[in-house]
Amino acid sequence: MPELITVPELAARLDELVRLRRARRDRPGGAERPPEEARLLTGNIPTWWADPEVRGLVVSLHGRQTVDKALEQIRGQVGDRAPSRSSMHRVWQRLSRAAGAPSRRIRTA
């Protein structure tokens, strides 16, 4: 059974992974990241992740509202700094995977 963690703990882990990824990129030989956390770093980190207010809103609304309703609320608070729907959804998928939520895809044999 996967370890259950809170959303703030997950956000802190992702921040640490971003730091490790940058350290690895900036130094030859770089820093090693924990293998169990490596799956969170697949793909690019969105530019809005560096904005603490936007990141906090996206993380705090994860799992509480639909993407569309959350995005509407975020746009009301931060305006043009709000992420795109697809970018926010990709981050929510990462957060769900990291928290151990099962995939919603139906697999057929």
Mean residue pLDDT: 76
The SSE string, one letter per element, is: HHHH
- Tell the overall outline: globular
The helix/strand class is: mainly alpha
Helicity range of the residues? Answer: 40-55%
Strand percentage, roughly? under 5%
* Strand tally: 0
Task: Report the total helices.
Answer: 4
Quote the distance from N terminus to C terminus. Answer: 24 Å
Give start-end ranges of low-pLDDT stretches.
Answer: 33-38
Report Rg. Answer: 15 Å
Task: Work out the count of structural domains.
Answer: 1
Q: Multimeric state of these chains?
A: single chain
Biggest sheet statistics = none
Please characterize this protein's 3D structure.
The chain is an all-alpha fold. The protein has one domain (7-98). 51% of the residues lie in helices and 0% in strands. It contains four helices and no strands. The longest helix is centred in the first third of the chain and has 20 residues, at 7-26. The chain starts with 6 loop residues before the first helix and ends in an 11-residue tail after the last helix.
Features:
0% strand, globular, 4 helices, 109 residues, single chain, mainly alpha
Q: What is shown here, in short?
A:
The chain has 109 residues and is mainly α.
Topology:
Blueprint lengths: L6 H20 L25 H10 L5 H12 L6 H14 L11
